[in-house]
Amino acid sequence: MDSPREIPTYQIFINKNEYQTLRDHMWSEESVSAKLKVNQKQYAVGIAYRGYHIRKLKKKSFRLTIQSPKLFMGAREYHLNAEYSDPSMIRSKLSFDFFKDIGNLAPSAEHILLKLNGSIAGVYLQLESVDDLFLTSRGLQAGHIFYASNDDANFSLITPENTIKQSLEAGYSLKIGFKEDYKYIRELIYKINTVARSDFKNEISKLIDVNKFLIWLVGVVCTQNYDGFIQNYALYRSGASGLFEIIPWDYDATWGRDIYGQTMEHDYVPIQGYNTLISRLMDVPEFRLMYKSLLETILEIKFNANYLEPHILSLQSRIRPYILLDPYKSKDISSFDMESEFIIQFINNRRAYLKDHLVALN
């Protein structure tokens, strides 16, 4: 077997005052100035904390905005995710690779070793930002991108707390586009919730790419991202077709673990997932059978231990030497070593559960 490839080392330098500002304003979205050094090249960057619950933990995630030169490896923004609650440190990477493998858009993700002001900060996952450059690099038409920024992005008129939403665009933030482009989200949410059952198939097909949405649904159901149905995604509306596609985001709480790193039983998420849009799509026999066919195929070819185990073990072996250097993870290397077996057992159990419940999609 070939020896694992080295992962890149990123060095970030923040002066004392800027670093103190960053730590004193933990919940701020404003960046402080820093320097990024990779492979002897230096970049001026802005750095800020990112995420929600991760900001409360010892090992925090960061957002990097590239300032000068304007791009770093073809992008102007990256996310450095701590993956702190994931004992394996590979769940997000494994998820995004899986989504791409089954034909869904997903951000690129690569592990790095981060040094902060000369000290090792640990192993991080460098995650590509979903923006206009994300589209360009994939040869996609320019369009609009909306982030599902909280759990109000459940495709409903009602919040998860059962209160009426203050606006149709509640739960979404505009990443690419202009303020007036929120009209596309408003139209989408309005029609999902008001179009008559007899007209829904035709009307929703004018707004979303149904086949691609169903491929995404297979991905989120297989990986069992409980939050992935109401947040943890981005919506891309093609300027050419006018149709929405959905892109996964934040996938560390997957493959049998929740956001706290605790066990999530393999049957926790139902076979059809959950949210208002999914419910309406599953109410259309043709769409439901399309979903069943896609799920059957992916369960047979892609979502099984024989197919996924080599990639899991490869990811684990590549980052293991660096986990030993991670001040937040090195003392629990035994948990890291055992987690691949946990993930593989989850795949076996989840796959069996989904195969047993395919009949519910008839």
UniProtKB/TrEMBL annotation:
InterPro entries: Spore_coat_CotH_CotH2/3/7 (IPR014867). Keywords: Kinase, Transferase. Pfam families: CotH (PF08757). GO terms for molecular function: kinase activity. This is CotH kinase family protein.
